[in-house]
Amino acid sequence: MPSSTPNILLIQVDQLxxxxxxxxxxxxxxxxxxxxLAEQSAVFDSAYTNFALCxxxxxxxxxxxxxxxxxxxxxxxEFTSAIPTFAHYLKAAGYHTSLVGKMHFIGPxxxxxxxxxxxxDIYPSTFVWTGDWNEPKEQHSNDARSFTxxxxxxxxxxxxxxxxxxxxxxxxxxxLARSVGVDDDQPWHVTVSFTHPHDPYxxxxxxxxxxxxxxxxxxxxxxxxxxxxxxxxxxRQYGLDQTQPTADQVRDARHGYYGSVSYVDNLVGKLMxxxxxxxxxxxxxxxxxxxxxxxLGERGLWYKRNFFEAASRIPLMVSWPGSITPARIxxxxxxxxxxPTFLDLATTGGSPxxxxxxxxxxxxxxxxxxGDGDGADVVFGENxxxxxxxxILMVKRGSMKYVWSGCDPAQLFDLSADPDELTNVxxxxxxATTEAELHAMVHARWNVEDLARQIAASQKRRAFMxxxxxxxxxxxxxxxxxxxxxxxxxxxDVPYNEWAYSNMLR
Length: 506
Known about the structure:
It is built from 14 helices and 17 strands. It is an alpha/beta fold. The relative contact order is 0.19.
């Protein structure tokens, strides 16, 4: 790695399963911009979310801790201000940090170390989405409209949001380019977070028309006749026990998802074009990832909240022209690895910033330097939200994925021999030693009894708060961004020509 301190651009999309990208073997998706980024990147083939749900995944990524360690049990759990994030650490390393787009912060702190935030969030910031292990179906769960309303649309709320995110992110890059040589070339970090291709499975007509309906693939794995207990509970959470989509609806939903993937690819392409035309690309590390995947009908399941590959395996690409050699990396990695990686990147040209507590992740820089698996090759995952009814915990070592549940039988899959996770080999004598080792790793990592009590207590407290404000008066913690347009207009006391010919970017 060079001695200069790089800028860091983190591009995060929402609910993008790795297997829907050509960079991960898909032959249908049309994503030329992400393909181009992948060709310039170290691409992690075995990257995972640490919690297949939006808010807990993001809080875990930001803090470098597992969600249970920061109290992020579901989409209605507060992310407290006392927890350092990579934005805090990067500021300590001399960076200026900006957030543009979704991060799903819950609670009054809507910055969590970022020095500025350029858009509001798209989801509630309160306890309204608090999980409840005692409810078979949450009131805010998905429903059959995912399938009856799938297809091309001229506009929806997510398009409105993402195009505002792109606009403000590009403006930020232009402003950063204008400041080069003026503000002592302070390194910067910008997180740009889009909400596509998250359901609804809708897209613009031009993105829908990029795909022929007959070319849309159906799920590889059909719904099992005897699903595991958690999958059955998860299906009830989503109402899939009452309404199963038809084959045409499944194809339309997946068609809409493909179109949404192409839509977000176009946004990524415009962002990357801006990075290049401002000549910021030469010393900028670009990280592309998501928060979790989407089942998209595999095993009869949709959306997320499980440890099957479609929901938990994610794209992760790291590019730094001239400094990171494009490669495929097979070692297991996860989102908690980003914080220590950013710290390593931030201190390539200066004094290290030490974390104030032990982190759950490990820097990926050794893998980026060597291109092979010198790390621990272990990832941990959690499922603690509604429908779980008890902690459900995962450890993946090498190709072996072990899922332990406080209320269901264990699962063990050898992904090298069984990539579709068709055969649960837990209890087989041939893998008894491996299963015992992974079981021990789970119980060394978590005190499952204490964790269950903490989650139940948290749900009870937050449910009380939610009910207290059910008739109105709920605290408004949403972030309201400044109107950036007011900073780009002529002030009363500035001559026209001084204003008109200032801040040009040639």
